[in-house]
Amino acid sequence: MRYRRFGQSDLTVSEVGFGVWTLASDWWGAVDDKAGMIRTALDAGINFIDTAPVYGQDARGETLLADVLKAHRDDLVLTTKCGYDVDADRGAKVQSERPHDWRPASVRRQLDASLARLGTDRIDLYQLHNPRIEPILDDDLWAELEALRAEGKVRELGVALGPAIGWVEEGIEAVRNRPIVSLQTVFNMLEQEPGLTFAAEPNVADGRVGMISRVPHASDTLSGKVTPETKFPAGDHRAHRNRDNMLDNFEKADTISFLWEGTGRTIGQAAIAGILANPAFATVLPTCIEPAEVTEYAAASDLPLSADEKARLDDLWARNFDHQDRFVMPLKSSR
After folding, report:
1. Is 297 marked active-site?
2. Residue 329 located in a structural domain
3. Alpha helices per DSSP H over the chain
4. Domain tally for the chain?
5. Which residue range forms the structural domain that includes residue 280?
6. Exposed site from 133, 168, 250, 262, fewest CB < 10 Å?
């Protein structure tokens, strides 16, 4: 496992991280061996653990980490998030967003609750969770976040964009004008915008802000786990993907098979290596439901792309992989 630093901070993280989302919910399939997943991640050299209070019911995404942190706290870089009201109902749609509450006093309470659930005295990286533009522009909120950092409850700040792809204004405003060391966004070899736009920002390009990739396998079209014929059940998060978009991505993936065929990489490892070939990205958060996937994806850190492979990938991206899209994914925004 190789490691990179978030900006100019003291946070050095594994190039492949571990997201707790799938352990706390069944939106990507059931995880039968939660403890084994975490053990496998640690054994693979993963030290970056990403969670949030809204993962699962009753803040399960945080409480399930308490025992791990007791044994390994000083070895891990822990990130959790703020913004959502975890006590609010999701409404009729089980996978819909809860309402946000960005009042400074609320965010302070949210942090204290997270610390108690996790059984720790500090959060290494505290991320705003799926913010719209209003909290990014809220000086009072950022003053409170700075106060929390001064108190030692938070070491560094970041922004996690979502859900879905987009939030360009939010990301640019945060990178340019807020004291963050990380920006998390959807980014994979087939869906590189707005990630490339963020990566071109001076504060990212010069290394002051490191990026985090999520959905690195393009909802499994780059994992080898599913096929164009796969039908996802209604409760599976991948079922939200536009069908034509999935077919487009499968066809584009055929043009970059040189990254795994005869290279010693699996397709899933190539997907991660392709992201890490961009120095703007400090770490990648693959979506895993089995220990074997954790082992497979973690190994991608030691299988980097060559300069020629990166150049071929960039050229194909610039030509849209010589593909005529059926569906153009809209970029989400606050307004």
Report:
1. no
2. no
3. 21-24, 34-43, 60-63, 66-72, 104-118, 133-137, 139-150, 168-177, 195-199, 202-205, 243-254, 267-276, 291-298, 307-318
4. 1
5. 3-322
6. 262
Specify if 191 maps to a domain.
yes
Asked if the bond preceding 286 is cis, omega within 30° of 0, the reply is no
pLDDT of residue 321: 98
In 3D, which of 77, 162, 147 has the Cα closest to residue 112?
147
Report the SS3 class of residue 283. Answer: strand
Instruction: Give the model confidence (pLDDT) of 154-206 as tens digits.
Output: 999 999 999 999 999 999 999 999 999 999 999 999 999 999 999 999 999 99
Alpha-helix runs per DSSP H in 15-59 = 21-24, 34-43
Q: Is the pLDDT of residue 92 over 70?
A: no
- Do the domain assignments include residue 266? yes
pLDDT surpasses 60 at 208: yes
Q: For 214-233, how does the pLDDT look when each residue is reduced to its tens digit (9 = 90+)?
A: 999 999 999 999 999 988 88
pTM equals 0.95
Angle between helix axes 291-298 and 267-276 (nearest 10 degrees) is: 50
| Domain annotation covers residue 206 | yes
Indicate which CATH number applies to the domain containing 178: 3.20.20.100
Torsion of Cα atoms, 261 then 264 then 270 then 273, to 10°: -140
